[in-house]
Amino acid sequence: MTKQPVTYAIVTPAHNEAHFLPAVIASLTAQTILPTAWVIVNDRSTDHTAEILDRAARKKGFIKVVHRSGKGDHVLGSHVSEVVKEGLHYVPPQMDYIVKMDADLVLPEDYFEQIFKLFQDDSRLGIAAGKMYTQYRRRWIMERYPDFHVPGLCKTYRKACFDQIGGLYSLYGWDILDCTKARMLGWTTASFSELAIRHLRMMGSKGGMPKGHIGHGRGMWATNAHPLFVLGRALYRSLEPPYLTGLFIILGYVIARRRGEPQLQDRALVRFLRKEQLSRLMGRKLKEESLRIKSL
């Protein structure tokens, strides 16, 4: 019997990404397994993002560009999940996998070929990605996070898992909650060091690293993270370049608390999340943590 080809669709939110898009488009269109559809949502960009995307769509039939218009500020967090949800309306039905990918990532040309093999080898793998590398002082340094976490920058969802978790949360910290919900339901989630993704800007650096870490802290409030874990995360991030900026995570958490920003209300998921966090603090998941700074 002839094996059926893998089908997948990508949704990419893009806001003022003209500087990065040519490299990102070249990376995606060179994949050994091309997507059925790549839906790029231009979120009210004011640079040349629209022109670049429209030109790419004319050249490649699988690229679909959605232009958002009207007033509104581009903010991180829950806004991103709302933009992705809009893009999902244009995804063809019956896909095997759904991918959320940012507009500042460069993938190896066999990235999706390799990641689908990993999914096929593990029937319980629900969400996966490679590891993120960002350039710092002429070196590509791996962004540190545990192997069971899949950052929101690039996530491949098995469609069955995506449907079971109910898609994306409309909440700051959605990219933590989707993986946590998947694990709570019996799926596995993983990021693989053998698949290197080049992140063209440092994680959370859009608007400056302090602002990015403040956003991270706000996300930890929104997900109802354990306060001890928030402190541990801030200290952990302060030990990587640019050094000490991770302490802004605490500031973001305090700001969100004082403002009374929305929090996750699913008590079962909160309990599961905090149990995992305390296990990490006590070193029970130490073998899955990225403690050393690695580079390509």
Automatic annotation (TrEMBL):
Keywords recorded for this protein, A-Z: Glycosyltransferase, Transferase
Residues covered by the Glycosyltransferase 2-like domain: 10-144
A Pfam family the protein falls into: Glycos_transf_2
Source organism superkingdom: Bacteria
GO molecular function: glycosyltransferase activity
InterPro entries the UniProt entry points to: Glyco_trans_2-like, Nucleotide-diphossugar_trans
Transferase recorded as keyword: yes
Family assignment from sequence similarity: Belongs to the glycosyltransferase 2 family.
Protein known as: Glycosyltransferase 2-like domain-containing protein
Organism listed in the record: Desulfosarcina ovata subsp. sediminis
